[in-house]
Structures are given as C-alpha cells and as structure tokens.
Amino acid sequence: MLRKISIQLSVGLCLLLTTMTAASAEKTLTLMTHDSFNISKTLVASFEKDNDVKLRFLKSGDAGAALIQAILTKDNPLADVFFGVDNTFLSRALTAGIFIPYRSPLLTTIPPSLQLDKENRLLPLSYGDVCLNYDKEWFKKNNLSPPADLIDLLKPEYKGLTVVENPATSSPGMAFLLATIGRFGADGYLDFWKNLRANDVLVASGWKDAYYGHFTSASKGNRPIVVSYASSPAAVVHYAKIPLTEAPTAAVVGDRTAFRQIEFIGILKGSKEPELAGKLIDFMLSIPVQEDIPLQMFVFPANSAARLPEVFTKHAVVPEKPAEIAPSEIEANRDKWLEAWTNAVLR
C-alpha cells in the first residue's frame, strides 16, 4: 500500500514538474505602445498560438511620453517591440539609436511614400490625416458656406467658430500646427495664428475636450469647426446609436490643409527575442491585422492590399496633397515652433 502511494506521489510530482517546466518555458514578447493602441483579441490569440508565445502589451501614455520612456530605458529595455513613433518624432527616435534594422517581406505591399526610414529601423504600420472637421447641419441652418481652406477661418463670418487643440499637450494639436507651417511656411504661420486668435479661436487642452466639449455636432458647445481627423466622419457613422446613411460631419481636405501622421513599428535594441519580434512585425503588417486597424483605431492601414471597411470607403477621405514637412526639420524646430506659437496664441 505504501509502495503504491509512493509511486502515485512520484508520478504526481513528475507531472507537476513537467507542468511547471512547460509554463516557465513559455516565451513572452512585449509590445510597448501608446494608450490609444488596440487590436482584436482573436488576432492576438492567433499570434500567440502560432508562435507559442505570450504577447504582453505595455501602454505608456501618449506617443511622445512612450517614446521618451523607451529612450530613457534603452540600456535595459522594457519591451521587445515599440509601436507609436510617428513622423513628428521619427528623427528623435532614430537619433536615439534604440531600434535595430528589420526588413519585413511585407514592405513590398507598403507605398514608398510611407517608408521614411531607408534603414528599416522603423516600418510604417498605419496613417491618418489631421484636418478641420465641420458640423454640416450647423452651416446649413446658418446659411453659411463651410470652410474649404485654412485661410477661410480668418474671415469675419467665421469669428468664434473654431476650436483647436494645444500643440504642446495634444498630438492632433501638434499635427495641425505642422499643417499650418506646411501651408504658410515657417515665416508665415505665426501671422496666420495671430489672425486666428484675433478671430476668437478657442484652444482646448486635447482632442477629447475639443471634440466632445465644444464641437456642436458632438456636444452642447458652440464651435461648429474642430481639429480632428479625415476619418472622424466614418467614426461618427460607425458609433451612431441610430443608423446613419450620411455622416453629420465632414473633413476639409483641400491642398495643404491636412497633415499626415504616419505611425511606425520597430524592434528595440536589446530585445531578447529579436526573431520573434520580427515575426510580430510581419504579423502587424499582415492583411488580417491591417484590415482590423481601421475599426480599432480609426486610421488607415499602411498595407495597400488591405481592404477597407465599408464605413471607411463611404465616409472617410484621404487628402491628395497634405502639407509636408521633413521629420528632420520637425525635430530641429519643434521646440522653437511651439514656443513661438505659445507666445503668439496663449500669451
């Protein structure tokens, strides 16, 4: 009897040790990203199963804050892969030397215009255009033509109609500031902003406050023009409690009225799983994930072969000629531009 119990205990102990060994052998891959990142759970589960790995997400504030944290911890990286660097921070990220090159085979499906790093340390994953949005019903009721260009905001009849985000505290706010620099030049953008201030522009701290706190189409506010995204009308239709056949808002996407934010993904130097990290990037650029992106984060997929959801094809637009500023120029002048903007608009 005792021998039987001993055998049973030995078998049980072996099973326990086997289970513990298997559990400890499971690899973990960490993706560091901004707070707005999202992906369907079924896709995550698929990657984990196919690669025998546990995928961990480390959300670290907005894109700028997350990047700064990655740079500060570069000698002991907190993650294997980083997503969320955009073209306004691209030069800073590359200069910091925290990414290693990786040429994904799926780069052939991504337009060259989105591939800003020739060494493939950062690969484009998605993009979106920051621009003016307006409340169509408000302009119809008030018998006023909606804006078609940034310069329209300076007209007397547009006084007190616009709300923007502070570029020092908001990503779309910074993108819109860059749109004005791309449109009016580094020597002319401040004149535009001074005139916009004189025309009673309202500056909100962030997108949520501007859109849901002051925009007439989404709040009890009194501003029918807001800085948002060219895909925002599609989001309004998608989330509407009562089905809509037409978006109640529209985006202004004339020449050099928008700024294109491109978001990148890369392998962090010091990753203990660089091969798996490469597989994760391939996965993120694959059709299933790229087709998941629009309705998860309301931006466009970088992979040109990805099909867009119907709500995007019907209600989202892509500017043909967005304002352009080189990432190196942004990095060299960001602080100067922000300080000059703050002095001209807030003081």
Brief overview:
This protein has about 350 residues and is of the alpha/beta class. The chain has helices at about 1-25, 40-50, 65-70, 90-95, 135-140, 170-185, 190-200, 205-215, 230-240, 275-285, 285-295, 310-315, 325-345; strands at about 25-35, 55-60, 80-85, 100, 125-135, 160-165, 200-205, 225-230, 250, 260-270, 300.
Notes on the structure:
The chain has 347 residues and is an alpha/beta fold. The chain folds into two domains: 2-127 and 261-308, 3-Layer(aba) Sandwich (D-Maltodextrin-Binding Protein, domain 2), CATH 3.40.190.10; 128-259 and 318-345, Periplasmic binding protein-like II (D-Maltodextrin-Binding Protein, domain 2, 3-Layer(aba) Sandwich), CATH 3.40.190.10. It has 13 helices and eleven strands. It has helices spanning 2-25, 41-51, 63-72, 90-95, 136-141, 171-184, 189-198, 207-213, 232-239, 274-285, 287-297, 310-315, 327-345; strands at residues 27-33, 53-59, 81-86, 99-100, 123-135, 162-165, 202-204, 225-229, 249-251, 259-268, 300-301. Strands 1, 2, 3, 4, 5, 6, 7, 8, 9, 10 and 11 form an eleven-stranded mixed sheet that branches. Strand 1, helix 2 (41-51) and strand 2 (53-59) form a beta-alpha-beta unit. Helix 7 runs parallel beside helix 13 (327-345). The longest helix is centred in the N-terminal third of the chain and has 24 residues, at 2-25. The chain is globular. It starts with a helix and ends with a helix.
